[in-house]
Amino acid sequence: MTLVLACLTKDTVFQISDRRLTSFAAPHAIIEDERNKAVVVNGRVSFAYTGLASLGTTRTDDWLARVIAEGPNEDMAQVAERIRERATADFRRLRIQPRYKRHAFQGVGMFRLRGETDLSPGIVTIDNAIDHENGNWLAEPLREFQVKTQFPEKFPGGCVLNSVGVVPSSAEKSTVLRLVQKCVNHRHSTALTIVHSLVMSLRWLSGRHPPIGPGLMVVRLSRERVERIEHSRHMWMLAGEDFTYVSATGLTSYFGPHFVFGRSVVTGFEGRSLTPQ
Q1: CA triple 234-81-162, angle to 5 deg
Q2: CA angle at residue 127 from 82 to 254, to 5 degrees?
Q3: Closest among 147, 144, 146 to 92, alpha carbons compared
């Protein structure tokens, strides 16, 4: 089980997810440390998952991208409901023990809410096993997935943090919150400063929770960037600016999330440094 961490500020949202896959049973043997878990939709919302890495023979990131692209995806409420319905049906068909079916998808981005003219930072979570009163996992999954949303009007300390997956302790949550708030409120703070604080936080947590890997993907979506994409109808996202890959091993390859734009899906993004001839 991975950790997906969302950070909302007034004008920019961030999502960071680790890339580790582990076995079900303790001590959670590492299967892979470079699995993509993020899907960016129309340059507006980034979905990531925690739980099962595959649904039958289909990788979960591929499943998620295809489900999103199968229907209209301008209205994120429709997208969330489609994910909820398909996940409910497909998880029921899985022949594994119920306790292993606990799963969550979380979308972080800039949303156009009904009756609102401006974009709103927010979070949508589609899950079958989270107690949303305290953020902990239920012992057994629900029969149906549920959709929960969060669109904060205030940002105490400059940001709002939310996470799904591995549940850090109260002390760990407080430590991460203090670090991120310090970076958000620093007089020389930039989006990159906040990215660095999130990377530091997840790598620190990975040293304390073995299911969390050191390899990370950060997606950053600003209000200005989303408005430009909506106006131009072209989804240009740049490595280092809109998404940041942090390798677990120091390799020089550069990976990106999956991208969905309308009915088109781009998967397997990878870039490499050019070698001088």
Answers
A1: 80
A2: 80
A3: 144
What does the pLDDT read at residue 238? 77
**Bond preceding residue 98 cis, omega within 30 of 0:** no
Q: Which residues contact 191 (CB under 8 A, 6 or more apart)?
A: 12, 14, 220, 222
Q: What are phi and psi of 48, to 5 degrees?
A: -140, 170
Dihedral in degrees, nearest 10, Cα atoms 84, 218, 62, 88: -20
Distances (CA, A) of 102 to 133, 151, 201, 219: 17, 25, 25, 24
Ranges of residues in the chain with a pLDDT under 70 are 26, 250-253, 272-277
pTM here is 0.94
What is the residue type of 215?
G
- Please tell me the distance from the alpha carbon of residue 17 to that of residue 128, in angstroms, as a whole number: 19
pLDDT value for 272: 65
List alpha helices for the chain, DSSP H.
60-69, 76-92, 170-185, 191-206, 223-232
Residue 138 is given by DSSP the state P
Question: Distance between CA 19 and CA 221 in Å, rounded?
Answer: 20
pLDDT for position 47: 98
